[in-house]
Every structure is written in C-alpha cells, then in structure tokens.
Design a protein that fits this description.
The complex is a heterodimer of chains A (112) and B (118). With 112 residues, chain A is mainly β. In chain A, 0% of the residues lie in helices and 57% in strands. The chains are: A mainly beta (112), B mainly beta (118).
Chain lengths: 112, 118
C-alpha cells in the first residue's frame, strides 16, 4: 500500500460546527504532515508529527487541532472556522523528516 | 532566508517541445530539492528529487539540473505531452541536524502552470 488516504474528499461546514479530517497511511512512515492549499498557491505547512509527537506547529490558529492517535493515523479537528479557512487540506507522510513527502488527494473544505 | 523563487508563473509549450522551469533558493542549509506535479483537484505528486551532491538527475523525460554555487535548480521536461499539463512546484528542505529551523519542512516555490498544446 503506497497511498495516503484522506477522508472525506469534500466537506461543507458552518462556522459553529465541529468536524474532523482524517488521514491514513500504511507505509510505515514516521513523519506525517498537514498542509493547507489555497487556489493557485503552493501548499502551506501547518503541522509536522514525527514519531507521533508534534514537532512543528506553524503558528496555526487554535481552531485547528491536530491529533496523531498512532503511527498510521492523523486527524485534524476543526472548530469555529471562518470562511477564509476554506481551502484544500492536504495530508502527507514520509519515512522520516529528511525524506520525500507523499501527499494524499486532499479534503476540499468549504466554510459557510 | 526560507524563500524559494520559481519562474515562470506560466508556460505554454507545443507538443514535443522542451519545458523548462527554474527555481532559486537562499537558505544554504537546504539539501533536498523535490519537484511536485499537481493536477486540478488532486494532491501534489512527487515527480523527481535531487540532493546537492549531484549536478543532474534524470528519470524518463524529466531531468533536474542543480547548480549549488548559484543556488539554482531547474526541471526540464523533454518531449512534452498534453498529459503533462499541470501545475509544477519546486521545493526545498533541510535534512541537517534536528535543531535546524527548517528540518522537516518543505518550502515550496509559487508554482508554474504548464500548458502543452497538441
């Protein structure tokens, strides 16, 4: 299995909702990432997990809360988002932080 | 210091032609340089990557050229095909000591929209 799987593919949520994005990989990768991508822009790093521990938080607002329950799973909990948070949210994994990152297909999030 | 500058923003090439995308970086701690290809609505896919101990790497129609002294690297797509039409991102990261501020972070260029006309 050489894929990073993200669910759901699309999500529409209101500003008062709580939702979660999920990411799964079974490649034995020990580094996992959340990126945010706006239209016609490059991905922006949000969080890095290394060996299930949060190692980088790029000053992301607290309405985004990451969680790494185990070495195969990565969640991003969303609460009280703003319309400007609408974007493609990408999960990635790599064998270690100094190796190539493999991206999932993303979750297209729309905040209304 | 963390920036990666990519050019051109957009590129139109005829089928069979050569597509060339250039990137420049400033952070001398960067030592891993991947290129990603992204189709609309999809996640970026790793295309090819290079480390600065080599000046060129080729995989099929895709070649990375790397100039360490100039802090520049480029992607060449030979015999470009309409199916190559996508957005291409260069990136860089630091694989040095764990204390490095960019360790584990991919810094992306702004992207190049490539259109290959049949």
């Amino acid at each position: 299995d050489t894929e990073v799987t993200q669910t759901p593919k699309h999500l529409v949520m209101g500003m008062t909702n709580k939702k979660s994005l999920k990411c799964e990989q079974h490649m034995g990768h020990r580094a996992m990432y959340w990126y945010k991508q706006k239209a016609k822009k490059p991905p922006e790093l949000m969080f890095v997990y290394s060996y299930e521990k949060l190692s980088i938080n790029e000053s992301v607002p607290s309405r985004f809360s990451p969680e790494c329950p185990n070495s195969s799973l990565l969640n991003l909990h969303l609460h009280a988002l703003q319309p400007e948070d609408s974007a493609l949210y990408l999960c990635a994994s790599s064998p270690s932080r100094d190796r190539e990152a493999f991206f999932g297909q993303g979750t297209r999030l729309t905040v209304v | 210091q963390q920036q990666v500058k990519q050019s051109p923003q957009s590129l139109i090439v005829q089928k069979g032609g050569i597509s060339i995308i250039n990137c420049a970086y400033e952070n001398t701690a960067f030592d891993y340089f991947p290129w990603y290809q992204q189709f609309p609505g999809k996640g970026p896919a790793l295309l090819i990557a290079i480390r600065p101990d080599v000046s060129e790497k080729k995989e099929g129609r895709f070649t990375i050229s790397f100039n360490k002294s100039a802090k520049q690297f480029s992607l060449h797509i030979m015999d470009s095909q309409p199916g190559d039409s996508a957005t291409y991102f260069c990136a860089a990261s630091d694989s040095g000591d764990a204390g490095g501020t960019s360790y584990g972070k991919l810094t992306f260029g702004q992207g190049t929209i490539l259109t290959v006309h049949p």
